[in-house]
Amino acid sequence: TKRQADLEEIRSGLEIFRADCGRYPTKQQLVFEGQLKGDGTANCPTTNVYISYVPQDIQSPARVYYYYSDGLLGSPYYLCAALERGTGSPDCGTPSNCGESCNYRVANP
User: Fold this and answer.
1) Mean pLDDT in runs of 10 for the chain (109 residues)?
2) CA 19 – CA 91 distance, rounded (Å)
3) Which residue among 50, 73, 77, 96 has its CA within the 20 to 30 Å range from the CA of 19?
4) Bridge partners for 41 per DSSP
């Protein structure tokens, strides 16, 4: 439940970032245990904080959250975690590099 709530919190910040910046952040911009700030463009200044503290997996470093986006206009993102219980493909069934043991994913679109 905690992992799912964390991913939903991150998803919310990603959507607000996209609304201002016109795209999703790159993997390098979304630093777990850090902040997600604007990219410095006119509508997305670096003073904008979209996530004040990007959560990490509660069992880090043994388990981590995986995020992938190339940051291009119109490109999707994938955000994944490994849940103790659940079903699904162990690799989330996408070429998104979400990790070997991923079985929970949020994405857009």
Assistant:
1) 92 94 90 90 94 90 83 86 64 53 79
2) 29
3) 96
4) 44
